[in-house]
Amino acid sequence: MSKQxxxxxxxxxxxxVSRDPLPSTTALGGYPLRYIxxxxxxxxxxxxxxxxxxxxxxxxxxxxxxADPQWNIEAVEVNYExxxxxxxxxxxxxxxxxxxxxxx
Length: 104
Hints:
Elements: H1 3-12, E1 33-37, E2 42-43, H2 45-50, H3 52-58, E3 73-78
Antiparallel strand pairs: 1-2, 1-3
Helix pairs in contact: 1-3
């Protein structure tokens, strides 16, 4: 994992600029996060951290448009109620903060 790529991605997302990995939960409340890409896909925090170099390379710079919209993260958001959210890269579920009990 590239520490410089992590810093650039954190800066673009409006997170505290540091070499720490992208967060999986909010600092206050511990709500689960998901990363939203330019093509409408979503990534779990594990995949976002694992593929940070691809994500950094896909970012638009200057007049250059995004090199790859499926890796260009445009937003980070809390997954409040989407029980069916899955990562588009690894297909693992992204936990919801207020998950309704599943019907059996």
